[in-house]
Amino acid sequence: MESPSQLWKQIEAKSRVISHWQSINTLLMWDQETYLPLKGNADRSDQLALVSGHLHHLITDGFLEESLVNLEKDEESSTIVKKQAEIWLRDIRRRKKLSQSFVEKLSKKTSLTLASWEESRAENSGKAFNAQFSELIELKKEEAELIGYHFHPYDALLQEYETDFYTSDLRQLFQNLSSKLTALDQKIRPQYPTNSKAASFEWSNKKQWDFSLDLIKRIGFDFKRGRQDISTHPFTIRIGAHDVRMTTRIQDNHIGEMIWSCLHEAGHGIYEQGLNANAYGLPLGEAASLSVHESQSRLWENCIGRGSAFIHFLKKLLDGADSKRWNPLSTLDLFTEANRLNDSLVRTQSDELRYHQHIAIRFELECQLMKGELSVSDLEEAWNESYFRDFGRYPQMLTEGYLQDVHWAHGSIGYFPTYSLGSIMASQLYAQMKQENPNFTHLIEEGNFQFIHAWLGKHVFSSGRLRSLRELCHDICGEPLNSDYLIADLNEKYSLILDLHA
Fold first, then answer.
1. Residue 367 structural domain
2. pLDDT digits (tens, 9 = 90+) for 422-444
3. pLDDT given at position 330
């Protein structure tokens, strides 16, 4: 019988082949959302289905599972190898519940739904999207049944993104978080300054683009191992161990949209670049979960990027880029603009006090869709009524209504709650970093982010998927996931702005 080290080398080799095929699949998806001509979507859906089916076969053909079982049983195998074997086996056994033909069908339908989403947004009509999405939801229901669940069909899909959370956990989380945020919102919003000088400052799209590239390079994104492009909905995707692609969008004459969108995606990108490149394709070289991924983007966008220390740094960069236009802009103006309170119905433009209500609405609608309590034909109305209930008005365009996000077009049911889980974790990590480095604020003001990269590398990046969100919070912060840190962070930030305006 082969030794554990010989067996592991074979597993590594097979995993590398699988990772290369996954890279091909990912590159096709990236191209679809950036440069693919509209009429190329039909062919692309066939291409993606073909690659997805082949990937499914490679993962479930029996060799990996048998090898991993033998490795897991062998007493000579290291703890890290056994943990990776455990994670790989969980993935394989989940995938084996789906047939190759089902995987291909789901991939093709997802690709067609994405194209219909783009079309429906352009026409402000949900007709094309609804036709495709109805069929996609039926496939997602079938997927949940094939995967299996104990309590709610949503659990089966949620655990694709966060393995140790259930629908009931999320209901409790949103109930608790909503009450805390509502109380804080009622305290802050009535006193908050409604306008800031930064909102109407005009920069050309070219100038915004150039500034964004410089900004994300300064915070640590390596352009020798990645790039940035434009897409309808910003996203980050890892195509290889040294190839991370980010996208952003630019709003005419409003630099704020670009700045914090880029910081968000750069958080994702820095995480991907910080993972163990030598373990690419293995659990040790992969992100822990979607929620942990979101903790990195929300950390850079909100905890760091909208904090007073970073605003001092950002002000210097803006002054250097265009001193004549930005000289009249005070640091307080920029701080207020970064944390502007608004009643936007668009999730990505929402302020932090109301952001999680957007997630809660999507979560409840997804649960209803998966249970068969809501049909896609009634989704727009259900969305609009939920927004009127919580925000006091109806969307005027579908791009600020139920077609604003790309996630459903991707078939990513169960994804949205990771934004809230990640936001909570981000504030917890942020508090821990500040506690461990008394010079933290000064370093950020000076644009020195080396401590942050080293700290995240040691505590978050280094273990890849070997620790879940719950385990990371416990090991790093010494306690479970705790939304009190998010509330405290927001209270401190908004209260400071009120004090500065007084």
1. 167-501
2. 999 999 999 999 999 999 999 99
3. 85
